[in-house]
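Journal club prep, notes for RB
We'll compare a predicted complex against what the paper describes. Inputs for the magnesium ion case:
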Amino acid sequence: MSTDLAPNSRWQEVQQQVGILGRSEAIRRLLETIEQVAQTDISVLITGESGTGKELVARAIHARSRRRLNPLITVNCGAIPEGIIESELFGHEKGSFTGAIGPRKGYFELADKGSIFLDEIGELPLTTQVKLLRVLESREFMRVGGVTSVQTDVRFIAATNKQLEEEVRRGNFREDLFYRLNAVHIRVPALRERSEDIPILVRKFAQEFVRENHIDFGGFSESALAAMAHARWPGNIRELRNVVEKIIVLERGAYVEEATIRRYLNISHPMDPALPVPLKRGREESERDLLLRVLLEIKSEIAQLRELLLRRQAAPYPLAPWREDLAEEYLEPAQPPADGEHSSVAEMERELIQNALLKFGGSKRRAARALGLSERTLYRKIEKYGLKGTHE
Ligand SMILES: Nc1ncnc2c1ncn2[C@@H]1O[C@H](COP(=O)(O)OP(=O)(O)OP(=O)(O)O)[C@@H](O)[C@H]1O
Ligand SMILES: [Mg+2]
C-alpha cells in the first residue's frame, strides 16, 4: 500500500506519527480533529467506550502540539484514593499533614509547559472538582498547606467512558466544570461503527505480534476477516487485538478460516445475548471453550501489564498515581479485623477481595467491577486489609 509509505494528506501524516490506524471516514475525521485542536491550548474532553483508543487520542494531541517536548502527565482519577487526591494533583508543603516531611510537587507542577491528561475524570470527587475548575479558570493553584499561589501553564485533556451530562443531572459532576472541560468534545467511535477498519487492524496486529514473538502464522482467509468485521466487539480495539493474538498462538501456523473465527468469537463474548448461542456442545468442546476463555483472560491481563510497563518506561514521571508513602499516612492503617461478629464479616470481605485480585491477576479495575465496588473503594480496602504487593 503506497499510502502507508507516502502520506499524501495531512491526516495520513498524523496517522503515521501517532499510530491511530484505520481508513474509515470516522478515523479520518478523528485525525483531522486531533490535528486542528493540537495546535491550540483549548481543553479537550475525549469520550468513548472502553478500549476505543481514548488514551491514544490524548497522547496524539500532545504529540502533535507545540508542547510535545515537555511532559504529558497522565492521572488516573479513578485510582487515586480520595484522601490524597489533592496533594497528588496540587502538591503539598512541608508539615501540611503528618508524614509530609518535605514539600512535594503535584502533577500540575510536573506538567508545567506540557499537558495533563485527566483520565476517568468522572471519578473525581466533587470537592476536588471545585479546585480543578479554579485551576482551569485562573491557571493557578495552591499546594496543600500552602499560602501562596503557584502559576501553571498546562494544557487540559480529559477522558471518560461515562455519560458526563447524565452525571451532571444526577449531581455527581459539576456543570461549570463540565462546560469548561468540554470546550472541544472528541467522541472516539466504537469499533463496530467503523467495521471497515477491522481488516486493516487485524493485519497490523497480526504482523506486529508475529514479528515480535517469532512465531509462524498461516494468515486469515477473506471470509475470516469478514466475520471479524461483522462482530460486535464490546471491548473494542483492545478486545480485537487480544483475540487476534490468541488465535495466532493457539492455531499454531494454520491458515485461519471463518469457522475458526466464529468459535473464538463465541468464546470471547460468552455473555452477549445478541450473538448466536452455541447449542448442544459436547463436553470436550465445552472444556476447550472454558480453557480458551481462561487463557483469554490471562492474555488480556498480560497485555494490559505490558502496556503499563511500556508506558512507565516512556513516562517522564511515573504514571502510576499511587504513592505508598502518602497513602500510609492518609488511609486507615492496615490492621487485623476487630473481634467478634465484625471480624468474620471483615474476614469474609478480605477473602473475597483477595480472591478477586488473584482471579484477575492483580487487576484492580476488573476486580472492582466483579465485586461491584468503585476502584477507589477497592484501593482503600486493599490498604485497610494490608493486601500489599498488588499495586498497579
Ligand atoms: N485506532 C487505533 N489503531 C491502533 N491501535 C489502537 C487504536 N485505538 C486503540 N488502539 C489500541 O487499543 C488499546 C486500547 O486503547 P486505549 O487504552 O487508548 O483505550 P481507552 O479508550 O483509553 O480504554 P479504557 O476506557 O478502557 O481506558 C491500546 O493497545 C491501543 O494502542
Ligand atoms: Mg483509557
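Talking point for the session: The chain has three domains: 2-190, 192-279, 331-384.
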